[in-house]
Amino acid sequence: VQLVESGGGSVQAGGSLRLSCAASGLSFRRYTMAWFRQSPGKEREFVAAITWSGNIDYTDSVKGRFTISRDGAKNGVYLQMNSLKPEDTAVYYCGAKEPYVGSYYYWGQGTQVTVSS
């Protein structure tokens, strides 16, 4: 299984970025896909998730600003990030797990997002 993130970069506060995650080696349509992030000195935290059926969940701090989506034809999951804030600065990771399993167990290498004020 391989998850490859892309789309990170540096942006000023209020700007936008779109992250992509390309999945291979798994039955993509069965998996719940998610985005997590980790800032220096902090634990990895949940950002957003989308199930195979399209159910979506967000952490409160990104609701109304971030949008998660998936494309079964491309085995891709995306995170549109708008109105970015300096506190969104982190390494963003794509994760995957089967439904009804508690923890995510497939991870990408991460992509850096830096938001300057």
Task: Write structural notes for this entry.
The structure is a single chain. Helices cover 0% and strands 52% of the residues. With 117 residues, the chain is mainly β. The strands form 2 sheets. Strands 2, 4, 5, 6, 9, 10 and 11 form a 7-stranded mixed β-sheet that branches. Strands 1-3-8-7 form a 4-stranded antiparallel β-sheet, with no helix packed on it. The termini are far apart. The model has no long low-confidence stretch (mean pLDDT 96).
What layout of secondary structure does this protein have?
Layout: E1 2-6, E2 9-12, E3 17-24, E4 32-38, E5 45-50, E6 56-58, E7 66-71, E8 76-81, E9 90-97, E10 106-107, E11 111-116
Parallel strand pairs: 2-11
Antiparallel strand pairs: 1-3, 3-8, 4-5, 4-9, 5-6, 7-8, 9-10, 9-11
Summary of the model, kept short:
With 117 residues, the chain is an all-beta fold. It contains no helices and 11 strands.
Q: What summary fits the major beta sheet? A: 7 strands, mixed
User: Would you tell me the overall average pLDDT?
Assistant: 96
Helix content: under 10%
Along the chain, the helix and strand elements come as: EEEEEEEEEEE
Q: Which descriptor suits the 3D outline?
A: globular
**Distance, first to last CA:** 37 Å
Q: Quickly count the helices.
A: 0
Give Rg in angstroms: 13 Å
Q: Structural class, please?
A: mainly beta
Flag low-confidence runs.
none
Q: In percent terms, what proportion of residues is strand?
A: over 45%
How many beta-strand runs?
11
